[in-house]
Design brief:
The complex is a heterodimer of chains A (159) and B (81). Chain A is mostly helical and 159 residues long. Chain A contains six helices and no strands. In chain A, helix 3 packs parallel to helix 6. The two termini of chain A are 30 Å apart. Classes of the chains: A mainly alpha (159), B mainly alpha (81).
Chain lengths: 159, 81
């Protein structure tokens, strides 16, 4: 009882134990679903953009339930920027690699020159690579949009 | 496609759109906008465009509502001028 009272006194206004615990339980499943949507993008509804938004919204949920400092400890601004830029480089890199190997921009069947899998398999696999890049970039943009809007660009307290 | 369901959802979409622009409080307008997004998502899914419905549910109803609220919480209740 004493421990509970100490814990509630330590919490500030607007932080509830129920919301924090349920967010803590939900976040891994939300991230797993986001990865599922990205990976299954080429034969079911969904894809890089939707999966990236779901992945980003899991970090937004963390920043809403806890304060922004603790969410920045889990996913720093630097790591976020690195992930987003990696996504953009994967997208442009795959497209440019296709052009270098003799096809058009984003014509994945040209990648058959590098690893001979057959043009049909390369079309399927190339879409997968591009969707991973799109998902990373969209996740980074969504998270940093919320961080900047929620703390007015100061990155301290958040909502 | 069931045309009566279509008509019902479209009616609710129009009601939500009129309510979202006529209500005075910004926070209530945001919540009504979220309801509007979910109804549009239902409409897309019912018309068979599941991919668009997925995008509408994640971006329109999920993230943009949170971003609107994050922006609105930094405004003041009454304008200064």
């Amino acid at each position: 009882m004493k421990l509970l009272r100490e814990r509630t006194e330590k919490q500030r206004l607007g932080e509830s134990l129920i919301i924090q615990t349920s967010v803590r339980l939900m976040v891994p499943f939300v991230q797993l679903f986001g990865l599922y949507v990205i990976v299954h993008g080429h034969y079911s509804p969904g894809g890089g953009f939707q999966g990236g938004v779901i992945l980003g919204s899991s970090f937004v949920m963390l920043a809403l339930a806890f304060d922004q400092k603790s969410s920045l400890r889990l996913m720093s601004e630097r790591a976020n920027a690195i992930l987003g830029n990696t996504g953009a480089i994967i997208f442009v890199g795959v497209g440019a690699l296709c052009a270098i190997c003799g096809g058009l921009f984003l014509d994945y069947s040209a990648l058959d020159v590098l690893i001979p899998l057959g043009p049909v398999e390369w079309r399927s696999f190339g879409i997968f690579l591009v969707e991973v890049g799109v998902g990373l970039a969209v996740m980074s943009i969504m998270v940093s949009l919320f961080w900047d809007l929620g703390s007015a660009g100061k990155m301290d307290e958040g909502l | 496609m069931i045309w009566t369901l279509d008509l019902l959802i479209l009616l609710l979409v129009v009601i939500c759109a009129i309510a979202a622009i006529s209500v005075k409080d910004l926070l209530s307008a945001t919540i009504i906008f979220g309801v509007y997004s979910f109804l549009m998502c239902l409409l897309w899914a019912e018309m068979g465009a599941v991919d668009v419905a997925f995008t509408e549910a994640t971006v329109g109803a999920g993230v943009s509502t949170v971003l609107f609220i994050a922006a609105i919480l930094h405004t003041s209740r009454r304008s200064k001028d």
